[in-house]
Specification:
The complex is a heterodimer of chains A (115) and B (112). In chain A, the strands form 2 sheets. In chain A, strands 2, 4, 5, 6, 9, 10 and 11 form a 7-stranded mixed β-sheet that branches. In chain A, strands 1-3-8-7 form a 4-stranded antiparallel β-sheet, with no helix packed on it. Helix content of chain A is 0%, strand content 51%. Chain A has no helices and 11 strands. Chain B has strands at 4-6, 11-14, 19-25, 30-38, 45-51, 54-58, 61-66, 71-76, 85-93, 101-102, 106-111. In chain B, strand 4 and strand 5 form a beta hairpin. In chain B, 32% of the residues are buried. Classes of the chains: A mainly beta (115), B mainly beta (112). Chains A and B meet through strand 9 and strand 10 of A and strand 4 and strand 5 of B.
Chain lengths: 115, 112
């Protein structure tokens, strides 16, 4: 149980385009989903927290208009990187939690390369 | 002082060794403690999840929490090359809405 999927697993795009990443909880309802960014050999950096049906809470320094997060259902959250630039190239990982006393289960990550 | 500290390694051990991974923390409100394993280019995988102090064992893995010392450990017995990965500790308080706090991770290499 507690499986989280991400799609796509890898994406290459041109600078200036937008990229959407999906995060799905496959066998449980995720009241809260988290989006992280990870650079090579570095730890996870929390970007934002989203609760189903409400606006995401962004961490300090993360641009809301650049990283659009939608958590429209209890099993799906999306992260859209708008007008992507090479510096946005990174490994993006989502996680999901089913409740207050539950832990986070991570997706496999999405590797984004912006040319 | 960072909220959660963890030796980044790398830590290299021979196959079959007992591995000890540790984290210290400063927030006494933390109640939930987790260990994740992350292989290169993959998402973290939950290994152990404990509440408050005490020990928890699962196969070759044992998690220990000492809240009085603000210190948690993960022991890996009979380590295997497949255990080579980065190990992240994470913790949170009982305060709903409080996000998890992750350690920076320890890179472990188990040499055959």
């Amino acid at each position: 149980g507690a499986v989280v999927s991400q799609h796509p697993s890898r994406v290459i795009c041109k600078s200036g385009t937008s990229v959407k990443i999906e995060c799905r909880s496959l066998d449980f309802q995720a009241t809260t989903m988290f989006w992280y960014r990870q650079f090579p050999k570095q730890s996870l950096m929390l970007m934002a927290t989203s609760n189903e049906g409400s606006k995401a809470t962004y961490e300090q320094g993360v641009e809301k208009d650049k990283f659009l997060i939608n958590h429209a259902s209890l099993t799906l959250s999306t992260l859209t990187v708008t007008s992507a630039h090479p510096e946005d190239s990174s490994f993006y990982i989502c996680s999901a939690s089913s409740g207050r006393y539950e832990t986070q289960y991570f997706g496999p990550g999405t590797r984004l390369l912006v040319l | 002082q960072k909220e959660v500290e963890q030796d980044p390694g790398p830590l290299s051990v021979p196959e079959g060794a007992i591995v000890s991974l540790n984290c210290t923390y400063s927030n006494s409100a933390f109640q939930y403690f987790m260990w994740y394993r992350q292989y290169s280019r993959k998402g973290p995988e939950l290994l152990m999840y404990t509440y408050s102090s005490g020990n928890k064992e699962d196969g070759r893995f044992t998690a220990q929490v000492d809240k009085s010392s603000k210190y948690i450990s993960l022991f890996i017995r009979d380590s295997q090359p497949s255990d080579s990965a980065t190990y992240l500790c994470a913790m949170r308080s009982d305060n709903y809405g409080q996000n998890f706090v992750f350690g920076p991770g320890t890179r472990l290499s188990v040499l055959p």
